[in-house]
Amino acid sequence: MRVLAAMSGGVDSAVAAARAVDAGHEVTGVHLALSRNPSSYRTGARGCCTLEDARDARRAADVLGIPFYVWDLAERFHADVVTDFVQEYAAGRTPNPCLRCNEKIKFAAVLDRALALGFDAVCTGHYAQLVDGPDGRELHRSVDPGKDQSYVLGVLTAEQLAHAYFPLGGTPKSAVRAEAAERGLAVADKPDSHDICFVADGDTAGFLARELGEQPGQVVDEDGSVLAEHDAAYAFTVGQRRGLRLGRPAADGKPRYVLSIEPVSRTVTVGPRDRLTVAHIQGSQPRWCGPAPTGPVECRAQIRAHGETLPARAWVEHDVLRVELAEPATGVAPGQAVVLYTGTRVIGSATIAATVPAAAH
Q1: What is the pTM (predicted TM-score) of this model?
Q2: DSSP annotation of 46
Q3: Which of 49, 98, 101, 299 is labelled catalytic?
Q4: What is the reported pLDDT for 360?
Q5: Which of 277, 276, 282 is nearest to 323 (CA)?
Q6: Are 281 and 352 in contact (CB under 8 A)?
Q7: Given pLDDT bands bounded at 50, 70 and 90, which one contains residue 37?
Q8: DSSP letter assigned to residue 66
């Protein structure tokens, strides 16, 4: 099998490529240049898109003895991931850029190009497992729950999974680092990347301010009383408690949380924590990691990358995914993804468009 190994410059993708070589595949390494100005992206432990990372990927490919190339996808990444991220916050939503990168870049732009060049699969260092089931390739959780990345892969379709290759899903991260050291890979002790690769200093609010400028508005309580002024509604997210800078405490003395964000009027509404509980989720653009269900499905729903799963019942109605939670969830923000599981298997996902409070439901 001809395999294109996406090599970020980190330990996971290097070991994944090595395992593909060991399996007897014809492997070619590729590093994705995603920054218009790589020196502006994070360096050292905090990055995954720097010039240093490209050099680390090339050195790993040299150790493995495989061909290596750099693909410039900076413009596509900026349009599909960075611009989408900014626009989502401007619209009062909370996006997940890693999920969008998997959907639009690694398993759309890269996979499409790989197939056109005659490759059979794209190999990555994601911690997830692929299992051949009765209805085709299935996506399952990693055996390492602390590193499991099936949530951010929940946007992949059956066709994309058929050409994906995740060699690390059955191995704990500690064992992957040990294997990298045994193979003589210099990235064995390289720290994992964190946060958002295109936010150079880790200051998301500052990044958005530079992109969108000041957009002042008001912070109000549920009856519309003005509590404070703010510089930008996009600096808030549903469920936020800290940094609200309210002019006066609540009558009961309890903390207040962001309940909703109205981007047109730039109004941020706050209230008590119990108003954040959600019983029903509506998701747009559902995507299925296999055959789409033909009726209601009993499953578990996950709404954060490393959050808990909740028992749920899900069905599609007029192209809208409806998820009824058996236990209320707190702080569910539009723009996040809801990913559905049966056991360890990912069924599919959707982008959260709206929620129904538990009390109203």
Answers
A1: 0.91
A2: G
A3: 101
A4: 57
A5: 282
A6: yes
A7: low
A8: -
Of 48, 49, 123, 197, the active-site residue reads: 197
- The per-residue pLDDT for 351 is 97
Same domain, 40 and 115: yes
Q: Which residues contact 54 (CB under 8 A, 6 or more apart)?
A: 9, 31, 33, 38, 70
Q: Which two tokens stand for residue 312?
A: 């749920």
Task: Clarify whether residues 8 and 144 are in a common domain.
Answer: yes
pLDDT score recorded for residue 46: 46
195 lies in a domain? no
Rounded Cα–Cα distance for residues 117 and 213 (Å): 42
> Which residues define the annotated binding site for ATP?
6-13, 32, 125
* pLDDT bracket for residue 240 (50, 70, 90): very high
pLDDT averaged over the chain?
Answer: 91
In a domain, 110, yes or no: yes
Active-site annotation holds for 289: no
- Would you list which residues are annotated within the binding site? 6-13, 32, 125
- Residue 38: band (very low, low, confident or very high) from pLDDT cuts 50, 70, 90: low
Q: How far apart (Å, rounded) are the C-alpha atoms in residues 207 and 324?
A: 35
Name the residue range of residue 223's domain. Answer: 215-271
Whether residue 299 lies in the annotated active site: no
